[in-house]
Amino acid sequence: MVQQKEMSSGVEWRIRVGDGSSETLVPEVAGVASRVWLGLKKMIAGFGFTVWRFLEKAWDLGADDPRKMIHCLKVGIALTVVCLFYYMRPLYDGVGGNAMWAIMTVVVVFENTVGTTVSKCLNRVFGTFLAGFLAVGVHWVADHSGEKFEPLIIGVSVFLLASAATFSRFIPTVKARFDYGTMIFILTFSLVTVSGYRVDKLFDLAHQRISTIIIGCSLCIFASMFVCPIWAGGELYNLINRNMDKLANSLDGYAAEYYNQSEEEAHKKLVGYKCVLNSKATEESLANWARWEPAHGRFNFRHPWKQYLKIGAAMRSCAYCIEALNGCINSGNQDSKFMKKYLSSSCLKVSSSSSSVIKELAKIIKTMTKSSIIDLLVGEMNSAVEDLQNDLKSLSGLFNPPEAETPENDTKPEKTLMSTASIPLMGLISVVTFACLLMEIASRIEAVVEEVEELANLAGFQCKSKQNQASTKIGPADELNDEDAMKTLEKA
Amino acid sequence: MVQQKEMSSGVEWRIRVGDGSSETLVPEVAGVASRVWLGLKKMIAGFGFTVWRFLEKAWDLGADDPRKMIHCLKVGIALTVVCLFYYMRPLYDGVGGNAMWAIMTVVVVFENTVGTTVSKCLNRVFGTFLAGFLAVGVHWVADHSGEKFEPLIIGVSVFLLASAATFSRFIPTVKARFDYGTMIFILTFSLVTVSGYRVDKLFDLAHQRISTIIIGCSLCIFASMFVCPIWAGGELYNLINRNMDKLANSLDGYAAEYYNQSEEEAHKKLVGYKCVLNSKATEESLANWARWEPAHGRFNFRHPWKQYLKIGAAMRSCAYCIEALNGCINSGNQDSKFMKKYLSSSCLKVSSSSSSVIKELAKIIKTMTKSSIIDLLVGEMNSAVEDLQNDLKSLSGLFNPPEAETPENDTKPEKTLMSTASIPLMGLISVVTFACLLMEIASRIEAVVEEVEELANLAGFQCKSKQNQASTKIGPADELNDEDAMKTLEKA
Fold this sequence. Notes:
The structure is a homodimer.
Chain A: H1 2-22, H2 28-64, H3 66-87, H4 89-95, H5 99-109, H6 114-143, H7 146-168, H8 172-199, H9 202-226, H10 232-258, H11 263-270, H12 272-278, H13 280-290, H14 305-331, H15 337-367, E1 369-370, H16 374-399, H17 401-404, H18 413-418, H19 426-458, E2 462-463, H20 466-471, H21 476-491
Parallel strand pairs in A: 1-2
Helix pairs in contact in A: 1-2, 2-3, 3-5, 3-9, 5-9, 6-7, 6-8, 6-9, 6-13, 7-8, 10-11, 10-12, 10-13, 10-14, 10-15, 12-14, 13-14, 14-19, 15-16, 15-19, 16-19
């Protein structure tokens, strides 16, 4: 409905603008009026157009991730339910005018992921409880120290605790986990001490606040956990998986682009690694929320979420090298075609073997089973790196004819063909750099492998059934089993 | 006081543990009691020790940046002042029991930097105002549509607006600037519609809330802006400056480390570039807050803060290459010493000229004046890159004796000496990669130069006085003038 209206105003705008420009020949007074009218219409139409564009963007956002829409509906329903609490007489008598606190709790605490909601709820409850407890104590002391000292004690205690709590928010550990709780602590402490000074029925107030907050929190936790839940841990897990796939694709893509294989196809994949470069902050906050989540799906309560951060960091260090490769490709216009071709097979082998290592790592994480072939793939990658090193070594033979006739180089016919011609070393530079960066990437991938293996140990990933391990060590059958397992998992 | 207590309990702990272990030979009942007692003491002491360590860390944090301590004191004072508002009878009558909202405003809105505080205040005021306005409208409609429809209309409106507002928080622009305002909007709208249903004196309520919130906001804005202010813009400016210095130092450091010059000195500087890699999130949030800040110091209201983000991104792309250099150095054990020496002077020249370009850029930003020598420095850097390229080219002469006798190579005596010997190309690889990455860094620095020049244009940096420009184009006199300018600026 709203969108249709906006649409029609957008159309109207285009028509009216045409009308306006033809009216400028009318006498002056009418002209001023019409111009004002025109300006007004333009402004409204412009506003309508902006709103329309905004709605379009919003629609795309919602269509992109329907879970966001579901979250919005959940918030709407939760808030309406809390309002019902307030409408109903019996509850009104029970929690009093403080039912406001339940509404506030829902608005402030209900977040997108389960972990965030749980963490905010616990922070809110414990912050309120601790502050209430302390405030009652301070109030009791102030009450027993005479009328003169009462405001002084309250003022000084508010000042000291507010300063200390604010300071604690600067400490990284507190900031990451208890920021919200600290804020609620200051708020509750000030409110209780100050209003205790007036109202003088502190325990009633404390009881009411705590009970309404617990009602709001339970509702939020229930809604976020049992109605289409979005788990921070699951998001982190998916992010790492996605980034791993992107890294593997980028690696393939760059090698293919450099060696001019299938340019159009490669181009789409290239930018993938940039996501890896920029996902540090997201990973950290997700890992931070994930630790508050109870066991869910395939993750138990003490799932080693921190290890995902380490994997992310190791992947990022690969991505830095890919970014440097990028520069290499752009400046590599003066490469000698021959050199490029000479190294292309071994370079492509390194890039494909290292991307298949990453893909296997992604599979380990996706299926949550230890892989029997990862060591083999790493070995393959290392031997590909060695081959590349040998090819580079044999290149020196091209420049030093007396060394060129070593037996290991006999297999390559182009070599002897070129050894007499002069090759400009200049054309070699970016080829060599490319090869060197590929080798560096391979060595950094080994660090990722280590982190993933650490994760497999910490999280207790199972080995595949012994039968599988015994019958097919690496063969295509095992490969198929893996894919079957993945498909069943994806369906589930 | 607290710290001393903790200290003594820590000492006590160590002594008592000794006592306890010698008591295990005493009869059983006494043994159990003593063990419980011991366990309890251990627990308390352990807790004390943790608290002590925590306090020590907190002290370091405070000593590191005294402005944080000042901020804490400011929050404490502001909160105490608001409590005074509440103690004073006349004000109590004026703003009523809603004085609570003033306290809440101070606690929630008062943030570390001026920009954050201002943005939160504006968000809070406009969110409250807009929501109050809408809620009164909805309430009026509900009032005039009969008792049956009243709760229905209110419920549906709460549901729709809460869902829509929650959804808008997912839109990146809204998330960055109006996240808090949207939350306040939902909160106020629900509170006003629901309590309007009961209290039936909506305008009084709205008036009270708005006035208390404005009191709280004014206090916060006043305190954050006029008492030892911390400007988000200034922080961003300092961060970019600091990162530029670190980048220049890292560049110098790596070149020095690679060529084994002054290892101890170099090592401290190396890690600097990692700050550049990780500062994206900080930069973005600071730039986001900075746009809310009024003119202050050397920055006017519409200072192009976004441009700093672009400079940061360009610097980061340099840092990626330095990270790749890092890998190069670690794997460069098998370099031929001769090759390294052969290229060392030109490599060091590239790194020193590019780091001096960065230093000059840092100076442009620090002094906020356009530099007359930046083009010259960039030219110098480019010619250093060309020299390096030529050296690399001439290397090919080493491998191709017939080409070695070209006239441009006559100046280097080592060359003819080596042209007859065989050089393992393997030892060349990391040297060439190092050189290639240095050239890539130089080309990325040019991107930084462009962004800084764009900043200079957007922010209207002044040229140095024409006299200076005319008399000394580059000479040491101009250099001195720059340093003088910086010193005066630093003093100011």
